[in-house]
Design goal:
With about 450 residues, the chain is mainly alpha-helical. The protein has one domain. Helices cover about 85% and strands about 0% of the residues. About 55% of the residues are buried. Its main location: membrane. Keywords: Antiport, Cell membrane, Ion transport, Membrane, Transmembrane, Transmembrane helix, Transport. It is a multi-pass membrane protein.
C-alpha cells in the first residue's frame, strides 16, 4: 500500500468517521443527560433506541444501494446516471419510510408492549419512541444524499452538515430535557423532539447542497412511470438483500436487549452503557466501510477488476490496525464510568466495566465484519453472502448461545455478553470465506456497459 492509497482512503474514511464520531458523541451525551432522570429512563431509552435502529439501518440500505450505484456511475463518468440514482433513491427513501413510520408513531405504547417491553418501560419510553420514529424519514433521506456525496468523492460536505446538526441537536436536547431558561421541562420527550427538529434540518441542508446549489447534481425527473419503475427496480434489487442483512443484525441487537431486560433493568442499563461507549471507539473504523463502497465501486465502474481486489485487501489491513488500536482505548474507557455516570448504581457500573473489557478484546473482529459485510461483499456483488452471514451470526450461534449460557446455565449477564461475542466470531469466519470466493473478473465490465446499467 503506497502513499497515494492512504490518501484515497483517508479522503473518504476520515470525514465519514468524524461524522459518525460526532453523531455517537451526541447519542452518548444525550444518554448522560437522560441518566440524570434515573436508571428506568436510561433503560427505556436504550430499549427504544434498539428498536429504532432496526428501522434506521434497514431502511438506510436504500442509501447504501444508491452509494454503490452512484460510485459505479461516477467511475464510468456518467453524470446523468448519478442524477438518476440520486433522485430516485431520495424520493423512494423518504416516501417509503414515512409510510411505515406514521402508524408506528400512532401505536407507540402498544407496539413496545407487543415487542416484549415491560409495562413500566413501555409507559416511560412511549413519547420518546413516537417522536424519534418520526425523525426516521429525514434520517433515511439524509443517508441517500450523504452516500451520493461520498461516491462523488465529496465526503466532507455531509460531515460538515452532520456536525452542525449534531451540535444543534445536543444543545436543544439538553435545554428541552431539563427545561433551560424559559423552555418547559419535557424529559425524555424533549430529547426526542430535539432529534426530530435537528434531523429535519440536516436532511433539508443536504438536499439543497446536492441538488440546488451551483455545480449540483441536477434532479432527474421523468414523466414516464416505466422509467421510475426501472430506476427503483435497480435500487431495490441491491437494497433488498442489504435490508435483510441489516434487519437481521438490528433485530438481533433488539433481541439481545430483551434478554438483558429479562435479567433485570440494571443489566439492560449496563448493556446500553457498553454499547454507547463501544460506538464512540468503533466509529473510528466506520469510514472504512464507506471507503470500500466508493473505491471498489469506482474500480468496478472503470472495469478494473485487479484494482477492485487490491482495494479489498488494503482496506482489510487498515481495519485490522484501527480495530486493535481503538479497542485498547475502548478498554481503557472502562475506568471512567464512575465519572461519566455518577447517578447510576455501583452494581450496574460494575457489570458495564467487565462488559467493556469483554467487548474491547474482540473489537477487531467487529471492525472486520463491518468492512467485509458492509463494504467489500456488497460492492463485490455478493450481497447474498452478507444476508446469510448476518442470519448465521445472531440466530444460529449468538442468541441461542446467549440464552443457553445466560438462563439455562444461569451465567446471567455474562452469558449474554459472550453469546454476542460468539455471534461476531461466527460472522467473521463466514464473511472471510465468502470474500475468498468473490469473482472480481465476472463483476467488472467495460465502462460503456456499466454506464448503461447505472442509467
Amino acid at each position: 500500500m503506497n502513499l497515494s492509497d492512504h490518501r484515497h482512503i483517508a479522503r473518504i474514511a476520515v470525514p465519514v468517521s468524524l461524522e459518525m464520531t460526532f453523531q455517537l458523541l451526541l447519542n452518548f451525551g444525550v444518554q448522560l443527560v437522560v441518566g440524570v432522570l434515573g436508571t428506568l429512563a436510561l433503560a427505556a431509552v436504550g430499549l427504544v433506541n434498539s428498536l429504532v435502529v432496526v428501522g434506521m439501518v434497514s431502511l438506510s440500505t436504500i442509501g447504501a444501494a444508491a452509494a454503490i450505484l452512484a460510485a459505479r456511475a461516477h467511475g464510468a463518468r456518467s453524470p446523468q446516471a448519478v442524477a438518476r440514482v440520486a433522485t430516485t433513491a431520495g424520493v423512494l427513501a423518504f416516501l417509503f419510510t414515512l409510510t411505515l413510520c406514521l402508524p408506528a408513531a400512532f401505536f407507540a405504547q402498544p407496539l413496545l408492549l407487543g415487542l416484549g417491553a415491560t409495562a413500566e418501560i413501555a409507559a416511560t419510553g412511549a413519547r420518546y419512541f413516537q417522536l424519534t420514529v418520526l425523525a426516521l424519514p429525514f434520517m433515511v433521506h439524509a443517508s441517500v444524499t450523504s452516500g451520493v456525496f461520498r461516491s462523488l468523492g465529496q465526503a466532507r460536505i455531509p460531515m460538515q452538515v452532520s456536525i452542525f446538526a449534531v451540535l444543534f441537536n445536543g444543545l436543544l436536547a439538553y435545554a428541552l430535557v431539563v427545561g433551560l431558561g424559559p423552555l418547559p421541562v419535557l424529559g425524555l420527550g424533549g430529547a426526542a423532539l430535539a432529534s426530530l427538529i435537528a434531523q429535519g434540518l440536516r436532511a433539508a441542508l443536504l438536499f439543497w447542497l446536492l441538488h440546488l446549489r451551483p455545480g449540483r447534481v441536477p434532479l432527474s425527473w421523468s414523466r414516464s412511470l416505466t422509467t421510475w419503475r426501472q430506476a427503483a427496480g435497480q435500487l431495490l434489487t441491491l437494497a433488498f438483500p442489504l435490508a435483510m442483512t441489516q434487519l437481521s443484525w438490528s433485530a438481533g441487537a433488539f433481541l439481545y436487549a430483551l434478554l438483558f431486560a429479562r435479567l433485570s433493568v440494571s443489566a439492560l442499563a449496563a448493556s446500553q452503557i457498553v454499547l454507547s461507549l463501544e460506538g464512540v471507539f468503533i466509529v473510528a473504523s466506520y469510514g472504512l466501510m464507506s471507503a470500500s463502497t466508493t473505491l471498489i465501486g469506482h474500480a468496478v465502474g472503470q472495469g478494473d477488476h485487479r484494482r477492485a481486489q487490491d482495494w479489498s485487501v488494503i482496506l482489510q489491513r487498515v481495519g485490522m490496525a484501527t480495530g486493535l488500536g481503538f479497542g485498547v482505548l475502548f478498554m481503557a474507557s472502562a475506568y471512567l464510568l464512575p465519572h461519566l455516570y455518577p447517578n447510576i448504581s455501583p452494581a450496574t457500573l460494575q457489570v458495564a466495566f467487565w462488559g467493556i473489557v469483554i467487548n474491547a478484546a474482540f473489537q477487531v473482529v467487529k471492525v472486520r465484519n463491518m468492512i467485509l459485510g458492509g463494504g467489500v461483499l456488497p460492492s463485490g456483488g455478493d450481497a447474498r453472502g452478507v444476508v446469510i452471514g448476518d442470519l448465521i451470526g445472531p440466530f444460529v450461534v449468538g442468541l441461542p448461545l446467549a440464552y443457553l449460557l445466560g438462563f439455562t446455565l444461569e451465567l446471567g449477564v455474562w452469558g449474554v455478553f459472550w453469546g454476542r461475542i460468539a455471534d461476531e466470531v461466527a460472522k467473521a469466519s463466514f464473511f472471510t470465506w465468502r470474500v475468498r470466493r468473490l469473482r472480481w473478473q465476472a463483476l467488472t465490465a467495460p465502462r460503456a456497459t456499466v454506464t448503461q446499467q447505472a442509467a
